[in-house]
Amino acid sequence: MTTIPNALTIPDLETVYDSLATAIDQAGEEKSSLFLVKLALLNANALASADVFQAHLQAALQDL
Known about the structure:
Helix content: over 70%
Organism: Limnohabitans curvus
Distance between the termini: 22 Å
Structural class: mainly alpha
Shape: globular
Oligomer: single chain
Radius of gyration: 13 Å
Number of helices: 3
Protein name: DUF2783 domain-containing protein
């Protein structure tokens, strides 16, 4: 298994997942896509790397 520098622990990932699910529910069905786009753009900005963001996009598209 490859170690990612500064990667979240499994419990932290579970916390993030729960927070994301709650936020999607709060946004509601009609606004969930807009919410996810805004969140993705904020996170892309925090990454400060278009290349890393593109790699994350491709990874997220796998096995849908």
